[in-house]
Structures are given as structure tokens and as C-alpha cells.
Amino acid sequence: MSIKQALQVYNRRSFKIQHISGERQFEHIRKLRSDTDINLNIIGCNEPVPAIEWFIKTIKERVRAIANQPPFETYPHRLIKYVSSLKIN
Fold it and tell me: Which pLDDT score is estimated for 2?
């Protein structure tokens, strides 16, 4: 799937892509950026993207908080699946 196809999929579902972060292999997308109002952030190899790292940390904290509330010794698979799919605001 090309980046244009991926953007079309998101647009059909009413998502507006404003930022794309990627490594040097995504440098060719710069020409696409001139056609749209998408900000492109190219980072070095193996360099973390702070916003994504923060988001992952937030999800882990919320899942841990939810997991420590129920009085179970082992968690039912259904509970794990539900907690994992929660919408993070």
C-alpha cells in the first residue's frame, strides 16, 4: 500500500492526517507534502519520536492502573482484550 492509498483510507473514515514522522527511508514523501498540508518529520535511524514514546507510556500506565484494580489473581482473557482495546483520550 502506498502512502497516498493509506491517506485516502484515513480520509474516507474522516481522519485528517496532519503529521507524519518517519526515518530516512520516508524522505521521498517530501514531494507529497508539497501537494498537501501534511507536516513531515524525518528523524535519524533508531531515534525515538517523543510524541509516540509519550503515547505508548500513557497507554502502559493506564493499562497498569486498570489491571491493578480488580481482585483477580489471574486475569480472564476477555478482560485483557477489553483493556487493550480501550480508547485512550
Answer: 79
